[in-house]
């Protein structure tokens, strides 16, 4: 939805404070962000610069071999003045694929699509732990709503600043942060299938975002598809289910995680 100037400024201020608090609780001042050159990672990186300062933000560019638009990711890091590292994940992806295929036979197409996001997650955590930093998640509400994300891949991170903002709201935030159009206007694509998200999903983000914010979806088939994808993907955003043994837990359950026992 169009947030308008005042609401957008308030939202940005609240978001910055929230991220600051998260970092304080974690006890780190170093943000580590996977930079694809798309709007989500660009906006999260710009946000991290506002919260932590540019010297405390590390961008990680992780092409799978050649990445045609890697210059956009490099330009974003230059624009924000953040340090960045480039790590080609193709050798790791190919080695993992070969090992899995040797054991179980040809990897399914869906498994192949989800492997790079999981390798990126492993790289980001390795970089973050090495630098004493934390991984900032870059997912937005629109993609998460329909589960268009890889569990334990791009769903990972210490916290998710854009989790309740639709794609159009993320763009408004990017503009407020002063990001040039080329960093916020690229049509979202997974970079793996050669198709845009909208081609793969079969509906537009405009329709999805309108449905999320107003409950209105004019095409019943699109509404049914969105509802189906939403229901089928909720598992990606819930804590892992735990078997409750009924055995006593007597120590202080400070985080309240075992309270069903
Ligand atoms: N109910 C349930 N409870 C717990 N686990 C459940 C489950 N149902 C399936 N699973 C597990 O989850 C797996 C399926 O989930 P997952 O591995 O995430 O994969 P899946 O949902 O099949 O695919 C994710 C889609 O998102 C696309 N993607 C990923 C990353 C970024 C972007 C982007 O453009 O932004 C797009 C990707 O190309 C792919 O089409 C199953 O193989 C199964 O192991
Ligand atoms: N080539 C890459 N290099 C570095 N990080 C990447 C790369 N591709 C994806 N990522 C990370 O994974 C996240 C999800 O990537 P995806 O390609 O699915 O695009 P997206 O969800 O539309 O996000 P964005 O708008 O940032 O591209 C990105 O926001 C980024 O943090």
TrEMBL record:
Pfam families: NAD_synthase
Catalytic activity annotation: deamido-NAD(+) + NH4(+) + ATP = AMP + diphosphate + NAD(+) + H(+)
Coiled coil: none
Residue intervals of the NAD/GMP synthase domain: 13-220
Sorted UniProt keywords: ATP-binding, Ligase, NAD, Nucleotide-binding
InterPro entries: NAD/GMP_synthase, NAD_synthase, Rossmann-like_a/b/a_fold
This protein's pathway: Cofactor biosynthesis; NAD(+) biosynthesis
Cited SUPFAM superfamilies: Adenine nucleotide alpha hydrolases-like (SSF52402)
Any GO MF annotation of the entry: NAD+ synthase activity
EC number(s) given by UniProt: 6.3.1.5
Protein family according to the UniProt entry: Belongs to the NAD synthetase family.
Protein name per the record: NH(3)-dependent NAD(+) synthetase
Organism field: Peptococcus simiae
Lineage: Bacteria, Bacillati, Bacillota, Clostridia, Eubacteriales
């Amino acid at each position: 939805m169009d947030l308008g100037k005042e609401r957008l400024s308030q939202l940005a201020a609240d978001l910055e404070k929230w991220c600051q608090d998260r970092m304080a609780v974690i006890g780190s001042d170093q943000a580590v962000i996977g930079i694809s050159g798309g709007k989500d990672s660009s906006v999260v990186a710009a946000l991290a610069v506002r919260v932590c300062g540019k010297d405390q933000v590390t961008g990680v560019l992780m092409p799978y071999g050649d990445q045609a638009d890697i210059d956009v990711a490099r330009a974003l890091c230059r624009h924000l003045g953040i340090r960045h590292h480039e790590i080609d994940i193709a050798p790791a992806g190919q080695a993992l694929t070969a090992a899995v295929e040797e054991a179980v036979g040809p990897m399914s197409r869906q498994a192949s699509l989800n492997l790079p996001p999981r390798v990126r997650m492993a790289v980001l955590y390795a970089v973050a732990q090495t630098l004493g930093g934390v991984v900032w998640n870059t997912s937005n509400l629109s993609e998460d709503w329909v589960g268009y994300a890889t569990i334990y891949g791009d769903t990972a991170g210490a916290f998710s600043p854009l989790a309740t903002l639709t794609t159009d709201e993320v763009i408004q935030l990017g503009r407020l942060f002063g990001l040039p159009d080329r960093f916020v206007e690229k049509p979202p694509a997974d970079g793996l299938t050669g198709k845009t998200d909208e081609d793969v999903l079969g509906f537009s983000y405009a329709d999805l975002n309108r449905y999320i914010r107003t409950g209105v979806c004019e095409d019943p088939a699109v509404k049914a598809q969105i509802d189906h994808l939403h229901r089928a993907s909720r598992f990606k955003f819930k804590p892992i289910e735990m078997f409750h043994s009924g055995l006593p837990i007597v120590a202080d359950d400070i985080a309240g995680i075992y309270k069903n026992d």
